[in-house]
Amino acid sequence: MQRSTRWLLVSCLLLAASSVAAQQASREPRPSLISVSAQGEVQVVPDRAYLVLSVQTRNVSAAAAAGENASKQTAVIAALRSLGLTASQISTQSYTVTPETRNDTGNHTPRVVSYLVSNSIRVKVSDLSLIGKIIDSSLSHGANQVSSMSFFESNADQLYRDALALAVRNAKAQANVMAIAAGGHLGGLVELNSAGGQLPSPVMGNVRMATFAAQETPIMPGQDTIQASVAGKWVFVPNE
Questions:
Q1: Is the pLDDT of residue 202 over 60?
Q2: Quick check: 38 and 221 in contact, CB under 8 A?
Q3: Does domain 30-45+156-238 have CATH number 3.30.70.260?
Q4: Would you give the distance in Å from CA 200 to the centre of its chain?
Q5: Beta strands at 110-125 and 48-59: parallel, antiparallel or unpaired
Q6: Which of 115-119, 181-185, 205-209 has the lowest mean pLDDT?
Q7: What is the pTM of this model?
Q8: Pairing relationship of beta strands 219-220 and 208-209 according to DSSP bridges
Q9: Which CATH superfamily does the domain covering 48-152 fall into?
Q10: 195-208 burial, b for 16+ CB within 10 Å, e for fewer?
């Protein structure tokens, strides 16, 4: 019985000490924090491109339209290979055979009058100086549509990491300025989070293309911006 009483007394004393310590900790002032968000940007000129080149043919016979299309697209691919493009850089994007109909006068039943065959290939270009030659050669060998063109960066992931590192440096520099202006200096880092970013998407917006007689088609890839954002918190330490 005496042993149980002693254990109960010790437990009460420990609980009381713990409660006092918690109260003291709660009364201790929390450190002031400086919260900032910042952005880093990296400017880069694209070094890769994708082209979608199409051959469209039309005939009253689906087989005839498809045969003419195959002949022209084969010539286009051969022309691209002669420019140094490998088979892995050329792939079929789409192939469609579409009946074209017309309603005769007085008859609302549509009648097939021709067939449109479209064969599109996707070309990955690793040497941007070849784009003009690729377009001109394709058009001269049977292609009749440049469906799309897009530019991108082969090392976009590394460029994003560079932008992210710059965003962190910018955030710390801002926090340091705020700390000095507030009469103190910057303490340790408490929290740091990536707030997202922006990688350039392959879009037509950067394309500037014009065709001149007896001249190679000039292509200008322009410049992309890769962005990264961070949010951070540092301890503010007042000067003594």
A1: no
A2: no
A3: no
A4: 4
A5: antiparallel
A6: 205-209
A7: 0.66
A8: antiparallel
A9: Protein of unknown function (DUF541), domain 2 (3.30.70.2970)
A10: eebebbebeeebbe
